[in-house]
Structure prediction request, 400 residues.
Amino acid sequence: MINSKRNTRRKINSAYARNANPPQKGGFVFSTGNLFYRSFIKNIDLLINTNRMRSPLVLLENESQFNLYPFTLNRSVTDLRIGILSIREKWKLLLGINLSLQTIDQINEAQQNILIPANFIPGLFSTTATEEEIKRSDHRILEQPWELTEFNDWALRNDFSLLTRGRNSEPIPGHVKTTNPGQIFVEKGAILENCFIHAGEGPVYIAKNAVVMDGAMLRGPVSVGEGSVVKMGAAIYGATTIGPYCTVGGEIKNSIFLGYSNKAHHGYIGDSVIGEWCNLGAGTSCSNLKNTGGKIKVWDMKNQKFKTAGNKCGLFMGDFSKSAINTSFNSGTVTGICANIFDGAALTPKFIPSFSWGAQTGQSYTLEKALIEIETWMKFKNCILQEEKKQILEKIYKAL
Prediction:
């Protein structure tokens, strides 16, 4: 174990030696307080001007992979959606190139790689920006799951500007009631029925083939992903991201639906992140504020204890999890993946492990049953469970 740690540290130091100071003792943690972060910002101009780049760009997984449970159990940090786009998609649009993803163990020390920490969320910049402009560019470092919602307002505005550069919105139908229509962008194929869109306090982006039904109310900043449906009478407040192929209704505020998930009925979801292929039964709601107004504690899976977050934290639900009708989630609740949540209690426990069968039964969802039901749900959206993802779920199940 000691040799392994030494080898990892040696590899990290070698990999970053050309662009940064060595990481702090104990291993690599990319955060705003360490030397590597400050050096990375100092040298960020290397990432922008493609004419000056002599080395391939690599997105590097780091400690954040373990801190962002449950969303990174079965995906890279770079594939987390914040704003309209995933972190990986932001880099691709900003630089015009695909970036590879590697871990420390995969780095070839002989190569002159430029390493971008996976949890670095870029702000807006131009490929023709000067070094000083780049250094002043806005950015965020994603270190905790609740920061997805804390940063989402900023990310939505940035992505809206990035995606609408040099493009024209489709005409907004006359029967749609709008405020500040210049900050509303509608892609081709989107259907807007008799709805209300208020972009006076932030932009609203409606992707192709999305449907916003009669009476739905959107108040920016908000994005509605490709193929998603906002049902009649829904109240969507900023800063909310509805990822692709979701169905949402009821009241949603300052939340992210990563994609392919349903909250089709009444109920409240606020300051929450909902993974992919989740289903919230009718009447499901979450608390996002303590009665005392104090700080909310959120389960830290890595250290097996609760950690203190902000004053507003709702539900953090891993992929493929489901809740029964009228489920009431406690503030700061964390659920793993593939949890089937039902319970007669007033509020759920604040931590529900992966593959739970019920919120407090102590029983497990069998892998075979979970996979069958995942495939059933995916058929509703004309999708199949890929073998690679099935193997990841099997690995997580065996590790419980």
Remarks:
- The domain at 162-398 is CATH 2.160.10.10 (UDP N-Acetylglucosamine Acyltransferase; domain 1).
- The CA atoms of residues 92 and 216 lie 33 Å apart.
- The first strand starts at residue 57 and ends at 60.
